[in-house]
Amino acid sequence: MGSRVLPLSVPTDAPNEVNESLLQIDLSGPSLEGEKNNLLSSEQNGVLGRVSSGLGGKREMVSRSFHGSRPCCGDDSDLEDGVLTKKRERIMHCCRPVKISNQALLSGFAYCLSSCSMILINKFVLSGFDFNAGISLMLYQNFVSVVIVSFLSKIGMISTEPLTWRLIRIWFPVNVIFVGMLSTSIFSLKFINVAMVTVLKNVANVMTAIGETYLFKKHHGIKVWTALFLMIISAISGGATDLSFHAVGYSWQILNCFLTASYSLTLRRVMDVAKHATKSGNLNEFSMVLLNNVLSLPLGILLTVSFNEVDYLSKTPLLKMPIFWLVITLSGLLGLAISFTSMWFLHQTSATTYSLVGSLNKIPLSVAGILIFKVPTSLENLLSILFGLLAGVFFAKAKMKG
User: Fold this and answer.
1) For 155-221, where are the alpha helices, taking DSSP H only?
2) Comparing C-alpha atoms, which of 320, 399, 337 is closest to residue 19?
3) C-alpha span between 370 and 59 (Å, rounded)
4) What range(s) does the Sugar phosphate transporter domain occupy (predicted)?
């Protein structure tokens, strides 16, 4: 389910302005502004000095040590009446947090790894185990996300907005599209190989660009439209040369592209309205993750019954295999990991870099999908896939300049 790259809140190929609005929301939240004001205030009073960490516990330790409390390095000297420079430096060196060098590279690698792993594991569950209850798989993955996000919010590691009825009513329409997007992604992945899924997903970019033009009157440059035209050519040629072509799978994927584009176009407008229905006046990504997954549970149950998956689940021996539960639980964890790593990556870089890396990420994913699942292919099909992937990279670069 490659659509979970901005996990559970924004699909992989969401337009840059949606990603940028997410980034602005996350970075401009009241909690971060409060931290920034506290740091500035502390620096002006000479309390923190060179400490730049946002971790409240360590900041409090340093502050107490400068005001007469026990120093964090075990020095029992009274610092209230003044300390020597060397002692002060030793205390500050002891309390300075460990910094990870080049977090942009690390966060980008974590995002790419979780994104690729998620799609490959989903493909393995659907094809390797021959699991025929895709909606139930989505439902379980979303349940895992709800449990983990709720737990992290409960212990104070992350902050989420309370789920009020007003907020739920505003968010519910976009959540219906979200559930449809995830469900059709799983259905298509059941019948189509990973490489062709990544190429066909480019069609969502075309639909999104057309929607932006007519709905938001956004102007796209000639390079963007050229890239979109190349994507259409690659999708048609890829399907025509696909040795494992499956009409049902392609139909699901085309529907998935339509829903993905609809989600991208709807999300920005709903986000602007939804944040006014929250207590803080903001809506961070953790809250959107929780909203999407909580609301998807009743819809998922309804779809499970509608597609008669309950009868299949009651008969399949897979549910008695511990290894199967381990794999699908891992897929749920990876789905949530995409949300965290994509947000981390966005904070370290920018929406345009994120979009470009997401396009480049499809190349190793396609190669891995062909090799791992031993997909029968031809030179013509491989060239079509490569052509489509390069068109995606060209599209990302064109959007960055546009």
Assistant:
1) 165-191, 194-200, 202-215
2) 399
3) 50
4) 105-394
Q: How far is CA 337 from CA 56, 108, 284, 334, 351, in A?
A: 25, 13, 16, 5, 18
* Cβ atoms of 288 and 35 closer than 8 Å: no
pLDDT tens, residue by residue, 69-113? 444 444 444 444 444 455 555 545 444 444 445 788 898 899 899
The answer to whether the Cα torsion of 253, 17, 400, 223 is positive or negative is: positive
Q: Are 149 and 286 in contact (CB under 8 A)?
A: yes
Structure tokens belonging to residue 272: 């602007």
Question: Hey, CA dihedral for 130, 134, 139, 143, is it positive or negative?
Answer: positive
Distance between alpha carbon 106 and the CA centroid of its chain, in Å? 16
| pLDDT tens figures, 347-375 | 888 766 777 788 888 889 999 999 999 89
Backbone angles phi, psi at 81, to 5 degrees: -90, 10
State pTM to two decimals. Answer: 0.73
